[in-house]
Design a protein that fits this description.
- The protein is α/β, with parallel strands linked by helices.
- It has a domain of 103 residues: 3-Layer(aba) Sandwich (Rossmann fold).
- The chain is 32% helix and 24% strand.
- The strands form two sheets. It has a five-stranded parallel beta sheet, sandwiched between helices. It has a four-stranded antiparallel beta sheet with strand order 2-1-4-5, with helices on one face.
- A hairpin with a 2-residue loop joins strand 4 and strand 5.
- Helix 5 runs parallel beside helix 6.
- The protein is globular.
Length: 223
């Protein structure tokens, strides 16, 4: 029996400790299958980015559990192996956050493979990821500062794809781009998810962008 790519059960998050602690993500549950796209929407302060961080393994929930392909993912004190860390990758709002400024795009993709998927055929994987992300392979030897905003975002997508994840978490991936470039990047994200079967979790304020997803989930700020 196959498992959903992502399962979150009654996941909540707190910030701070003791009397000053406050809830930053109200309990929520969700499930995603391969190839599905889910938009998480809601007002600022609802905990959308907190949820993204938990699913990316960058923070722990204060309650609830996250599973990826049926196995526990986000647990206090977890020590995920490299074999599992590659399964969930992020596409950030600021593409530079996914790339090493002093490295070429090619070197950044190779570095990701070395850390997360050392068994992969490196150069073949780099070229394939660039192709799937619609990133011009002629630009692979440029550094992030030498790219336009749209090129940098496509490079960040290639960086996420190079390790063959099961789930992409895109946190406001188009909000820093001009409308034309944002449209191109959004189209690329949806096409990539459809063509590869990767599940796409989209965090966004843009309701038109959210409407393009298979499903939408609006969350509210904790009371």
């Amino acid at each position: 029996m196959s498992h959903p790519v992502l399962e979150a059960s009654s996941v909540a998050a707190m910030r701070g400790t003791g009397p000053s602690a406050r809830q930053v993500l109200a309990p929520l549950s969700l499930s995603m299958d391969a190839g599905e796209s889910l938009a998480i929407t809601g007002a600022s302060g609802a905990g959308k980015s907190t949820l993204a961080d938990i699913i990316l393994g960058l923070g722990d929930p204060s309650a609830g559990q996250v599973k990826v392909l049926g196995e526990p993912w986000s647990l206090p004190g977890r020590n995920l192996s490299a074999q599992r860390r590659h399964l969930v990758q992020g596409v950030p709002q600021d593409a530079a956050a996914a790339l090493v400024p002093r490295y070429s795009i090619r070197a950044s993709l190779h570095l990701a493979l070395t850390r997360l998927a050392p068994q992969a055929a490196a150069e073949e994987q780099v070229e394939r990821a660039a192709h799937v992300a619609r990133f011009d392979t002629a630009l692979l030897d440029r550094r992030p500062r030498e790219l336009s905003g749209g090129q940098a975002q496509r490079a960040a997508l290639a960086r996420a794809l190079v390790v063959a994840p099961a789930l992409l978490v895109a946190d406001e991936p188009t909000s820093a781009l001009d409308p034309a470039t944002a449209g191109e990047v959004a189209e690329n994200l949806f096409t990539t998810a459809k063509d590869t079967g990767i599940a796409l979790l989209l965090i966004t304020h843009d309701l038109q962008l959210a409407a393009r997803c298979s499903r939408q989930l609006s969350i509210s700020a904790p009371r």
